[in-house]
């Protein structure tokens, strides 16, 4: 009987469905990482976003930057157009960095691999951020004033691009993490803190001089935030940024990061965890 039995090779569709199921369970696990209840994890993320937004609202109001024409009509939407892409980018990067690496105990389970871990961690970060965005906008729309976004679909595309660029940066750090764990932890925090200013969320890019633009246009998040404001506000047309640069740079960083991660995975050793 055994000689007559044939082994059914999984089809591409079946393999894709199996991969999607693994990613789904990984997303659920990552969402519940901060709290056993998924609802509490979502609520905590919303509260963190509101607190961050409130802190910047008070700071900007105190230093008197509410007079700019771009945000005179709706100051909170102006703040959100800068803060939210920054949070999305940073949290996507940190989620990828903290995902399970090739030497993790979870990788001993046969169906799992680092690609599943990266995908589930990054998608869970996107899910949490998009949920927080809609909750904040809904509350503002109901409690304070109607939310008016000039071009909502491209604006949402900029949020996705901010997430994607964060994933791309995170893969670079993830590839380096098994080799230089302490450096990656410190460098990731420095990058996130530097983007508090370097992302350009605290000012309007069109008001900068050419010399000032040169200090920020290396940063893909600077371009994304400026382009996002062009879609959010009808009276703003970005002149000092473009979409080509963040898209191309993110694709290049993602490719380099995945190649580096593949190299690391091939040379991974279980003894690395013992050294950390």
């Amino acid at each position: 009987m055994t000689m007559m039995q044939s082994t059914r090779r999984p089809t591409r569709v079946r393999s894709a469905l199996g991969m999607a199921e693994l990613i789904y369970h990984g997303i659920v696990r990552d969402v519940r990482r901060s709290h056993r209840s998924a609802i509490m994890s979502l609520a905590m993320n919303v509260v963190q976003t509101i607190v961050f937004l409130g802190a910047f609202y008070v700071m900007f109001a105190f230093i008197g930057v509410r007079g700019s024409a771009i945000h005179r009509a709706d100051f909170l939407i102006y703040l959100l157009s800068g803060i939210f892409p920054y949070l999305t980018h940073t949290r996507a990067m940190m989620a990828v960095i903290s995902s399970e690496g090739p030497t993790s105990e979870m990788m001993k389970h046969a169906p799992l691999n680092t690609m599943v871990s990266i995908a589930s961690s990054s998608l869970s970060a996107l899910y949490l951020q998009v949920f927080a965005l809609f909750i904040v906008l809904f509350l503002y729309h109901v409690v304070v004033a109607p939310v008016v976004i000039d071009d909502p679909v491209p604006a949402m595309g900029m949020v996705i691009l901010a997430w994607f660029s964060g994933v791309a940066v995170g893969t670079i750090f993830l590839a380096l993490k098994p080799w230089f764990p302490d450096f990656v932890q410190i460098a990731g925090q420095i990058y996130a803190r530097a983007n508090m200013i370097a992302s350009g969320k605290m000012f309007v890019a069109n008001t900068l001089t050419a010399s000032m633009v040169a200090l920020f246009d290396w940063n893909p998040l600077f371009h994304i935030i400026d382009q996002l404001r062009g879609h959010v506000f009808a009276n703003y047309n970005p002149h000092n940024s473009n979409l080509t640069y963040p898209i191309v740079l993110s694709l290049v960083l993602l490719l380099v990061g995945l190649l580096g991660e593949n190299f690391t995975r091939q040379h991974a050793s279980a003894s690395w965890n013992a050294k950390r």
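Residues 22 and 270 are 23 Å apart (CA to CA). The mean pLDDT is 80.
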